Structure formats: C-alpha cells, structure tokens
Amino acid sequence: MVAPSRSDLAPAAGSTGGRLAAVQEMARLQRLLFEVEREFIRTATTLIYRVGEPELKYLLCQHVWESAGHARFLRERGRELTGFSGGEDVRDALRQVFDEAVLPADGGMALAGFYRVLKPALLRAYRHYLDVTDHLADWPSKKLVEEFILDEERHAREITPYLLSGDATDAWAAHLSAIVASRGGFLGESAPAPLPAGFAWESAARCYTHPLTCNRGRYPTCSSVFSFDPAETPIVRPWLVDPATDARVIRIMVYVWLMMEMDAVDYLATVFYDTPAAPFDLHHDLARHLWDESRHSQFGFRQLPKLGVDLMTVEHSLDLYHILIHMPPHERYAMMTMEFEAGSFPTKATVMDRIRELNDFEADTLLAFDRNDEQNHVRYGHRWLPEIMALAGEHRPVDEFVRATQEKFKVLAELHGGRTPHALPPERRLTGEKIVRLVGAR
Ligand SMILES: [Fe+2]
Ligand SMILES: [Fe+2]
Fold this sequence. Notes:
Elements (H helix, E strand, L loop, with lengths): L5 H4 L5 H5 L1 H24 L9 H26 L12 H10 L5 H26 L6 H21 L7 H16 L38 E2 L3 E2 L7 E2 H5 L5 H13 L2 H12 L6 H27 L9 E2 L1 H6 L4 H13 L3 H11 L5 H31 L6 H19 L15 H8 L3
Helix pairs in contact: 3-4, 3-5, 3-6, 4-7, 4-12, 6-7, 6-8, 10-12, 10-18, 11-12, 11-14, 12-16, 14-16, 14-17, 15-16
The protein binds fe (ii) ion (2 copies).
The site of one fe (ii) ion has 6 residues, from helix 12 and helix 16.
C-alpha cells in the first residue's frame, strides 16, 4: 500500500458534496415528497366541507391524517440526510399545482382531480423513489416508502366508490394531468411534456374562497340540534343534566351530539388552506384534531341506527359553520378550542356518569376516548393558538384576544346564525319527545 501524498489529503473544492452526492440526491427527492404531502394536507382539506356524504368526509379526514404521518416521517428521515434542508416551506411551483386543484366549484369534480390525478402522481413518485434508491444503503427510507405505497394503494381503493366521471370531470382531470406531465411528475421521474397550446391556468384568473355553507348531501339540515324545547330538537339542554332523565334518553342525545361534531370537521377543515405559512407541526396537529372529530362524529353515526334511530330523521346543524366562516382562521380556531371544547367538559362528565348506569361498555368506551381526545384538543389550542394568531398578525395577549373573539362571535351569530329552517316537519324529525317514545321511557 502506498502512503497518501499531501495532495491526496487536502480537501478538493466541493469534495464534501461529491462524496455525499448519492445521499443528497435521495434527500432532494424526499424533500419533494414531503412538500407534496404538505400541500395535499393544506388543499385536500377543502374537499371535506364541499362533499356531502358523511362516509366520504370521514374517509378524507383519515387520508389527510395518514398524509400528515407520511410527511412527518419523511421530515424525520430527511433530517438525517445531508441535503434535505432545514426549513419546511413548500416551493412555489408545487404550490401552484395544488392551488389549481382546489378551484372547481363542484366538490365532486375537485375530488376527482385530487384522486384521479394528484394522488396517482404521488403514488408513482413513491414507486420511483423505491426504484432508484439503494435498498441496503437507504434501508431506513426504503422501509418508510414501502409502507406509504401500501397506504396510497389503499387510499385509491377506498375512494373509488366516490369518484365521478363524465365530460366535465374528465376534462378537469385532463387539465390537471397536463400540469403534472409538464413537471415530469412530482419527482421529475419522466420527461417533462410541454403544456398544450392554449393552456390557461385557472388560478391565474381567480382565487379559491370557502363556500358560505357546508354540504351535507342528502341529509336534512337545521340551524341547531340544541334547544330547550323537546318538541323542536333532539337535544334538550336541561335534560342532559337532569337526574330525572332516563339514561337511555341521555345516551341517544349524546350520540346525536357526537354525530354533530361533523360541524367541527367542516369548519376545522377550512383552517389549513387559510394558513399556508404554518409550521408543519401545526398542520400535523390540526390534521390529528380533524381526524379525531371525524371519529367522534362516527361514534354517533354508527351507534344511532343500532338504537333504532333512522339517520334520515336526524337533522344536521349548520349554524357553527355559517357563523365561523365569517371569521378569520385564528378566530375560528380560538372559538373551537377555547370556547366550545374547553366549555364542554362539565356537561359531558355528568352525561358519562349517567351513561354508566346502563352497563353499556361500548358507550362508556366511546365517551372515554372522546373525553381523552378532547383534553388533547384543548392542549393543542394552548400550544397553537398563539402561533396561529402570530401568522395572522394578531399580537394582543391571548386572553384578551379570546374574550374579544367571543364577543365578536355573539354579534356574528345574530347575523348569520338561526338562518337554516328545519328541513323536516316536526312529525318527521327526531326530537326530544320522539327519543322518549323511542326508548319507551315514561
Ligand atoms: Fe370531538
Ligand atoms: Fe375536539
């Protein structure tokens, strides 16, 4: 063996980059994948309140949460690799793709764009990553990407029953496909194809805005499911805490309450798009919060029919979305975490104690997990409200801001609340009186 000369030991210009080029190239691809998942979370959430079918809303919340998991693991692995880069921002060229995808006024058409074009492009990108990486050298990334591919394949199967086709939808899918092709895919894994002659970006002409109402599809709607009148609404406020109320009545009322956390699903889903500069961890925790609320809503949606309730008689309340959509995102988030969630614990505790009389282990379990999740949501609120306020340029002390927001909500509730008449006549809709008759209580 020949001893190295001085000149062999001296670092050559750019040698660090040269030695780690293979790592840097894979880190560059992981960074792109991280940014695509981030943008999916920011924009696919706009589908949730625009589609009407509860099962589809629940599925979208689950997919968004799984995307947040992918993004988090990509970021953690990426940070182990030279070249991933420290920040979390998304490059403008990628953002432009997703800002285009949200634009169809029709929720079903927008859904088709995301799931017929963008998600398949992401799946191709993950498969490309797996093809080009060294399975021994980059084993940690390989294991993650194999998992993500299974998730993406499952997402494709799960969403298929909800995907529309038809001339207008097909044309929109072709429009988005041309954009993806012009980039050569999300990772540049194929040769870029020039945009067709006369191609026009919709996002050059207009911006996306949230609809002023949320879609509940074929289900009947109303302003609120809470009142003091057992002939009007299913949840009768004083009955929830009245020791004389039959526990079986309370069980149905609390399942209606849980199902109506669909409100929270719909208005929380609006916050992502409105906070493009949020740190990733904020969107990660919001995605968890969103998925939790969709599970809480499913507790009611799945249990009520088992107790003899026809879901087509349960009106969906729209007031909270209608009011909150007139507030900026940090005010929506403040009302949710600091008012609605923080304020719900005492009543729910009383309700849980009454439900235990029934020896209904499933109901006890669902309520216990709901309570545990809600405690986390209030913690998220304390963690993230100051950050989301700062993003919006709001610098008042948090307490002062929350009090002012509560007052503003009252004013907006006068203006925008109570505007949705009962879709069903009293004889057809579920009310407190009907619940009493249903369970055979006195
Ligand atoms: Fe909840
Ligand atoms: Fe919550």
